[in-house]
Amino acid sequence: MTTTLFTPLQVGPYLLRNRIVMAPLTRSRAGDGNVPHDLNALYYAQRASAGLIIAEATQVVPQGQGYISTPGIHSDAQVDGWKGVTDAVHAAGGRIFLQLWHVGRISHVEFQPDHGAPVAPSAIAAQGQAYTSKGFEDFSKPRALDIGELPGIVAGYRTAARHAIAAGFDGVEVHAANGYLLEQFLKDKTNHRSDAYGGSIENRMRLLLEVVDAVTAEVGADKVGLRISPENKANDIDESNPFTLYMAVAKALSGRGMAYLHVIEGDMLAGKNQPDTGFDYLALKKAFGGLYMANLNFDKARAEQAVASGRVDMVAFGKLFISNPDLVTRFLLDAPLSKPDSKTFYGGDQHGYTDYPVLSNVAA
Fold first, then answer.
1. What's 208's domain CATH number?
2. How far apart are CA 234 and CA 179, in angstroms?
3. Residue 42: what are its φ and ψ, rounded to 5°?
4. Could you tell me which of 193, 293, 338, 361 has the fewest CB atoms within 10 Å of its CB?
């Protein structure tokens, strides 16, 4: 029997209805205090036919914020706000994980609790701009985290995972991709440390593995996924030997009993027509040994082929879920897809957020 996008899949304690995953998508629509609210609940509930929703990246501590109006999971009000979201998704029959996030150096002093410098493995400024209350401003130069601060970073992730389960999430995904803090420690462009967290691959992996172990100890390994982006150069990140690094990461994670490994296959900055670098993602899947979720520029045909061949177990879709809340139904019926409006991706109200039509409305 051929496995398709619509074949159910056991992920940890959950039997997913299909293998179509809603990828985590920053939309910058949290309320005051970075608290989720009713509009966010409607947005996610509209997309609950996904086999799994991975909610948008959510800062584990106030220091972890780098964008305006992104939600947190570190205050009681935020936990209560997220409870409204998870209740709505569950009422619609869906499953939802929360992505745990610390942006590290991809931030601005405006977002830091003391208006001080953002933190990073090394005091190397990122090229690029943050969207602040004043518009686009250059990322602030970070300070290097002292080794004595790193247990507090790990504790922040652990507490955030506990808060996520209290808020009703079915599990969590540790965000170690896209140039944010955990990836800043992994990759040699951003990690110039000479202590136990820098230099060798084993040392550069140390903080990530400490976070994974803390989170899995808190909520159970079978409710924890991890996102990585071996070739991605977004947010001014790079690595001189990505295959060696990420094979080591995958092997280190193997046997931990995690729910899945979520991999951005390629460079987000390269667009849809990126060259084939020859990176062997199948080898990465085999080294990990557990469920493998692929992401980046998949359409239905490419996703179906990847699942049917056994190369991947699930496929995460981002922009297609923004403009097609009923993406699963549209894929099932081979119906036309609505195109997203990039001007409404970040910030704003319901426009470009909860007002995309479903098929019945399109027909009408």
1. 3.20.20.70
2. 6
3. -65, -45
4. 361
